[in-house]
Design brief:
With 287 residues, the protein is an alpha/beta fold. It has two domains: 134 residues, 3-Layer(aba) Sandwich (Rossmann fold), CATH 3.40.50.720; 115 residues, UDP-galactose 4-epimerase, domain 1 (Alpha-Beta Complex), CATH 3.90.25. Helix content is 46%, strand content 14%. It has a seven-stranded parallel beta sheet, sandwiched between helices. The radius of gyration is 19 Å and the shape is globular. It starts with a strand and ends with a helix. The structure holds NADP nicotinamide-adenine-dinucleotide phosphate (NAP). The site of NADP nicotinamide-adenine-dinucleotide phosphate has 28 residues, from helix 1 and strand 2.
Length: 287
């Protein structure tokens, strides 16, 4: 029986695919892109289709036993998620692991948090055997900020002064593999977070220590963020992210000791630190 990975060509999904292949899974990856399909690792069955087009989904889910799904940040994220759930129910999928977001209900007024709440609720009502894997802000987001970090010596993700339990995407992939394999976590919500609470200033200080030169934090002025990022991203997305950073400024997003204890038990090791991430990917920030 095969496992279907939805989102398997992206940041988290590519790590999930790698991890599941190492564990001997037979995988099918749904992708909208022929180019990305051609670059999937050997042994993975690509399926060209889209969660936006329901007529492709029956075949995508045929013979599928387990599913891992994350949805791209789009305006129709809920529609895409619900289409996948309907197809999974029809195909008789045995387990559905869904990547949501850490504490989505705390900020459900933000579109991409609200989408996760809707999709979680739909999964609960679907009768499928589900697990919600709920990550905090990824360390790997900092790849997007590489030029600013290394050229302007500025950390420009405005995460604020209360702090987030940011997380390594490799830990998310390990959790996905574990909860797909073991039934013990069925119907549970698993927070996936890092071991330390990182503020903007602390992130810049750790980057300075790692890189050997002073990196400054950009500060919490979200108009500065909007002006900079609207050059590259659509307005709706920039506004969505600004709302999220505003939430982080006011409330932070720190994991509880109980969440970290459960995560450590699932991983079988402590979640990776930001310093570990920088050491493991030091070529990215020095090239
Ligand atoms: N960044 C963070 O700090 C953070 C933290 C917590 C949660 N999240 C959540 O994580 C998710 C993003 O994960 P990511 O960064 O790994 O994603 P990503 O790198 O942006 O990749 C998106 C994936 O979605 C697939 N996709 C896009 N449109 C599709 C469609 N119509 N049908 C089927 N597949 C489609 C893409 O496949 P193709 O391009 O191959 O079609 C790709 O594999 C979002 O839901 C976000 O809210 C992010």
């Amino acid at each position: 029986m095969k496992t279907l990975v939805i989102g398997g060509t992206g940041t988290v999904g590519s790590q999930v695919v790698q991890r599941l292949l190492e564990k001997g899974y037979e995988l099918r990856v749904l992708t909208t892109s022929k180019e990305k399909a051609a670059k999937l690792p050997a042994g993975v069955e690509p399926f060209i289709g889209s969660l936006e087009y329901t007529d492709t989904l029956e075949a995508a889910f045929e013979g599928i036993d387990k599913v891992f799904m994350l949805n791209a940040h789009t305006k129709n994220e809920i529609y895409q998620g619900l289409n996948a759930i309907a197809a999974a129910v029809k195909a008789g999928v045995r387990k559905f692991v869904y990547q949501s977001i850490h504490r989505a209900r705390a900020a459900a007024y933000i579109d991409h948090f609200q989408s996760k709440v809707f999709i979680e609720e739909a999964l609960k009502k679907s009768g499928l055997n589900y697990v919600f894997v709920c990550p905090n802000n990824f360390y790997q987001n900092d790849f997007w900020f590489k030029d600013s970090i290394t050229k302007a010596r500025l950390y420009n993700q405005p995460i604020g002064g209360i702090g987030l339990s940011r997380v390594d995407v490799r830990d998310i992939a390990e959790v996905v593999e574990k909860v797909l394999a073991i039934d013990r976590y069925d119907h549970q919500t698993i927070a996936v977070a890092g071991p330390e609470v990182l503020t903007g200033e602390l992130t810049a200080a750790i980057l300075s220590e790692h890189l050997g030169y002073e990196v400054s934090y950009i500060g919490d002025d979200l108009q500065v963020f909007k002006d900079a990022f609207s050059q590259w991203l659509p307005e709706w997305m920039v506004n969505n992210w600004a709302e999220m950073y505003d939430f982080f400024h006011n409330s932070g997003l720190a994991a509880t000791p109980k969440e970290l204890e459960q995560l450590t038990e699932i991983l079988g090791h402590e979640p990776r630190t930001y310093r570990q991430f920088l050491n493991d990917y030091s070529n990215v920030f020095t090239s």
